[in-house]
Amino acid sequence: MVQLYSWGLIILKGIPYVSHIDMDAFFASIEQAANPTLKGKPIAVTGIGKRHSVVTSASYEAKRFGVKSGMAFFEAVKLCPDLIAVGVQSKKYGYVSKEIMKMLTSVSPRVMVASVDEAYLDLSFHTRLEESINRFISFKRDLKERFGITASVGISVNPIISKIASDYSKPNGFVVVKDGMEREFLNEIPVKDVPGIGRHTLIKLESMGYRTTGELLKGLDDSPMDLYTMFGNAFMGFLQSLKNNRFSRKEFFKEERPKSVGHSMTLSGDISDFDLIVRVTNFLAARVIYRMGRYKMEGSGISLFLRYADRSSKALSKKLSFTISSIKDITEITPWLIRSIWNGTSVRAIGISCWALSEKKNQRQLSLFEKEKELLETVLEIEKKFGEYAIFPGNILFLPDIRKLEKPSDLHYQGFCRREVSC
After folding, report:
1. Per mean pLDDT, which range of 256-260, 262-266, 326-330, 418-422 is the poorest?
2. How far is CA 84 from CA 57, 87, 319, 360, 405, in A?
3. Which of 68, 284, 288, 393 has a 20 to 30 Å separation from 141 between CA atoms?
4. Are 28 and 10 in contact (CB under 8 A)?
5. pTM for the whole thing?
6. In 3D, which of 289, 371, 295 has the Cα closest to residue 332?
7. Are the C-beta atoms of residues 214 and 183 closer than 8 Å to each other?
8. Lowest mean pLDDT among 250-259, 266-275, 338-347
9. How many other C-beta atoms lie within 10 A of the C-beta of residue 97?
10. Is 118 assigned a catalytic role?
């Protein structure tokens, strides 16, 4: 569905296009722009100087050597011996991200933020494709002048194809797939480049002879039952959405609360003390509760993830008969979760999340000085005034091995929200 605009007797029809914009090597590009001595050099944004640090973002100079986000830093150095480690500065990236999302409203008033460095824009407010293209050209110029970074843009009538297009000619790419040309564009796109197709699905598809998206869509046309038998109904619906030149714009761009909220941490050194593992997990759990509090939500599902020193991992998810909405609720559960999956060896990374979220019940407003005021409300007010990391549970500091962790802001620390969107 497209927008209709009427002035007098003239009715103008909005274009059916949607765009996806993705910042190029976002964190690394920000650091290179901020420090000219890093320009043109292979850098990795990570927990600086830490053996188990994970690459959060790599510059394109580093990517040429095979360095990727999510890779252990010591492995990245093996691929690129001249790799320069730059410490993570989350607040700086958050500020730049928010400013960029504001700038995108110059292209379209309807922006759906997909992550810290990417967004979808509804282009139906324009009546000509050329008009939206010119707006993006101006935006990319302003982005370079203001922050010294670039972004890649993909435009089509299908949001999934727009995302594929934005990745097609990175960095600083600009790809427009005109209405009716989608199949031709997808024909040579490798299946591995289609968002939503994971590693295990890719292995099965390649074993069936599907290596390009064109081959996969032809298989959908010629032998749909083979694909259905192997992958099921949800995957068939996903493939149909790739073929569909129209989508529910209202559904896609509607504001939704997250489906899950979580936080993870890669530690600067392995830890094997149960109490310390619990304390770190509770620190992350508190962040989850604080974040759910911002959305005024509570959860009845909980998941814990542990990665061991040998890089193996174990996870556990549980649906609860009650809801979690306070630090007390979640910290009573975390020791049990840890005991259920911890194998007694050293841990290098921890993650915890709440899901099956719903609106928090029995909400009420209290002044800062009311005795019954919930601790969570006070914490949220403090964080709103002084920043997200202004406060955290003090008990994490009272263990001798905490020196391994240094301060929380120095850790490779990631908060995440999950939002489900379908075409």
Report:
1. 418-422
2. 12, 10, 43, 45, 22
3. 68
4. no
5. 0.71
6. 289
7. yes
8. 250-259
9. 19
10. yes
Which of 31, 61, 118, 383 is catalytic? The answer is 118
R_g of the chain computed on alpha carbons? 23
Which tokens go with 329?
Answer: 């609720």
* Mean residue pLDDT across the chain: 83
Q: In which residue are the tokens 């934005």 written? A: 166
d(CA 290, CA 301): 16
Q: What pLDDT shows up at residue 413?
A: 38
Per-residue model confidence as pLDDT tens digits over 272-294:
999 999 989 998 998 898 888 88
